[in-house]
Amino acid sequence: MKTGSCFKSFVKYSSLNVLGMLGLSCYILADTFFIAKGLGADGLAALNLAIPVYSFIHGSGLLIGMGGSIKYSILKNQGQWSAVNQIFTNAVFFTLSLAAVFFTLGLFCSAPMTRMMGADGTIYEMSRIYLQVILLFSPMFLCNNLLLCFVRNSGAPQLSMAAMASGSLSNILLDYIFIFPLRMGILGAVLATGIAPIISMLTLLPFFLKRKNNFHLCRCKASLKQWTDIFSGGLPSLIAEISSGTVIIVFNKIILDLQGNLGVAAYGIIANLSLVTMSIYTSIAQGIQPILSGNYAKNLSANVRNILRYALLTVAVMSTIIYAGIFLGAEQITGLFNSQRNAHLQGIAVHGLKYYFTACIFAGFNIVVCAYFTSTEHGRPAHVISFLRGFALLIPMAFLLSSMGGMTGVWLAFPVTEGIVSLLGAALLRHASRI
Hints:
Largest sheet: none
Oligomer: single chain
Low-confidence stretches: none
Number of helices: 13
Order of helices and strands: HHHHHHHHHHHHH
């Protein structure tokens, strides 16, 4: 692959994936907007207390989808077709196993899990309903993530993007219908979210019916070795999503002590906008994964380096645009979700937006570097970066800075953590380039 062809592939996969992931991230953003309009600050607080569970489910889907598709892409480019079908079949086994766990939690454990998240009083029942229904729809989310990743790696990024977009559009439409004309409240919002991956998978269905895919289910035993390979390749994606949910839980508890439910509602606006922003960087990382893995499998190291450069430059440009938009439009952005025109909520959220999103460029860098390492079968550096930015550094930083600076410290914990980890990521990248 020549440099020009390499750039075209980068643009094709990344741009389509960004569009698709923006649509996918609107699952929750649409809920945030319509719940804010229909249920006010209590609805926002309830959503934000339940939303970490969605992050855990989504992360599990990406664990298998990304981990399996990385291995699939490498094997496909090496012409090992029998192994390709085995890795897909084992990825399906893995998906169904995790889906059973989440579904069981939804049937029997939604109430204690809701209390564990910190929900009480008027927001408890809304949080419990949202959490339970999300868990019951978990098989749909997991299967959708698995198929999206494999279809993208099978050379159909346009279809993957269309599927994500169709799911998102259906979610937005159903959100409006269920919350306003049908007056179903929080149940309507979560039902719309749960139906969306079903619409997405129906969009992918012709790809399989017309046999355009080059991966199939086959007769084989569940392989611990292949499950381990899938887990290793997808672990950074899982950590990123689980850490997102865990951070929301920790931040909620800190903010409840500092500002009560109103502070949690304000953080709900910031957290959900952050999910959308992080999805842009994740989509760039997922977009470069097939072409990184393909070039790596063929030992085209110059192309691998070029693709990484294109991705990091794109992150820098996107980060500048995103932060400028948030800094200049913080009042207007918060106003969209502040349906009750609460001045205190407005002040907390505007202040938080301007500090919290200074993390953009560092987070984007870390996400892309993790994708580079996993796509080229260098899992350990990716695991270290993911673990530090997700758990080991961010949570202690949140407690430390909040004790020193109150709400300002809470908002600064994320950018400070991402900045420190990006320095480590740059060092690991420099070391890898010398090997």
